[in-house]
Amino acid sequence: MADHSLHIVIGGEAGQGLVTVGQLLAKGLVRQGYCLLVNQDYQSRIRGGHNTFRIRTGIKEILAPIETIDLLIALDQQTLSIHQPEMGPGGLIVLDSDFKGQVPAGMKVPFKELGSGRVANVLALGVAGALLGLSETVLAQAVDDFFGRKKASLLEENRRALEAAFQWTRRQPVSFSPLDPVRPSFSRLMMNGNEAIALGALSAGLRFLSFYPMTPSTTIALTLTAQAEKMGLLVEQAEDEIAAVNMAIGASYAGAPSMVCTSGGGFALMVEGISLAGMTETPLVVVLGQRPGPATGLPTRTEQSDLDFIIHAGHGEFPRAVFAPGTIEECFHLTRQAFELAEAFQTPVFLLTDQYLADSYRAVKPFELAGLPSFGPTLDSALIGLPYRRYALTPTGVSPRLLPGQGPHLVVADSDEHTEDGHLTEDLLVRRQMVEKRLRKGEGIRREVRPPEFIGDENPGILFLTWGSTRGAVLEAASILRERGKRLGALHFSQPWPLIPQHFLERLEKADTVIAVEGNATGQLARLIRRESGFAINQTILRYDGLPITANYILDRLGLSA
After folding, report:
1. Is 3.40.50.1970 the CATH classification of the domain at 453-558?
2. pLDDT tens by residue, 159-185
3. Looking at the whole model, is its pTM more than 0.85?
4. Which residues are paired to 424 by β-bridges?
């Protein structure tokens, strides 16, 4: 793109502190007013293996990752071997002076002379900060904030290490173009997708979260655990995913707005519980962080292959909504909408994210929380006459929901088919009435569907169709092609279910060529659109190697690379 940005890659083994370096550098960039996008690539092991922390940063909004590297911080030999071929023109490699080989465009840093081994990551931070033209004071404050909470005795040593790295780097005759200067115009937060989901859930009135740890969703639970006492929230790590979903259903039945977070393999175990929520008409929000499958697949990589699964998960027929955020802001707002719909229509609602978005930090404006409504059971039992009918047949399919033990009414729920008052029945006429009642709630959900977002030229030559986290890469590719004189458009679905053809069919029919861009092997949204609307999307750009889609990946598949 025309806007200047730099791509910084910090590489090394798990346990070397590369995430610490990356997070501190990213915080320094955000505090100085830069935009950024962080993409983490790590293996499913505690120590060893090859991991990277990638930061793309600049003055303007960063939409997606990029392949070409401008600054490589190599904490081990393997990083150099793997990523040296990816260096761009004018790029610089930073590595330890102990490395004996010759490295073109390499800057060898005497880490052992500048400080002890336990501050090596702060030294690397200082070198990177000086090369990028960042403020030493800002980075020092970030270091103090991070390490001061852990051990005060490290503060002075860290400050000396950062200063030594800055001074040493400034004396080196290295040709490297730093970032363009920027003046911060407003404060921003550094936040990833999972943190935004957690914040959105808290703002919506979440009171109970149950989970079994499963990458990439676990940090949602960890973020909420850190705030649990302050926010009056209960977080429960269950013995397995089956217990987790049933705990959440029980908590919701008792009146606590509830959520579970998991990944594909864990969600597979939750499916019977999802049907239980559908039959008992219990509000529930489920976050599924996608990763490559089947089975264990690639536990720490990214993919968009669970759309079909989540739309059809659960035996029997009952209504649902599925959201798929494409930005950090959407992670926050769509989580809130999921709680609103779950409560309004007394049904499970799903948030479909993925490892890339879950772990990807961005610079975002602080969310305005004042005055935001929370969602939960609000019906006054005094307004309901006796006998109370939990599953009363209504025109909307939504029945009055009271909480057990909160009044004189008997609150009954049944996982078998049931009568209006909640008792088991095998009356086949009642069965038909109850199925139709539950499905009528789907009509209300359809009226609340978020239309896909259209960005670009009217009547485009190429219309990219996408959903979830591929939004940024598609918009960047469209921007590049538009600069070359092509008419481009993008249609992004942040709610891929239910699909309402009136929201998008005219856009598809007006485009010369429609190309679905998805992070899976079968074009799941494209096939879903054909099923629901009859429009066949015959051209796809798909990725399923565990890495996020980038603008260059899209252009390569079109034969239009720069």
Report:
1. no
2. 999 999 999 999 999 889 999 999 877
3. yes
4. 418
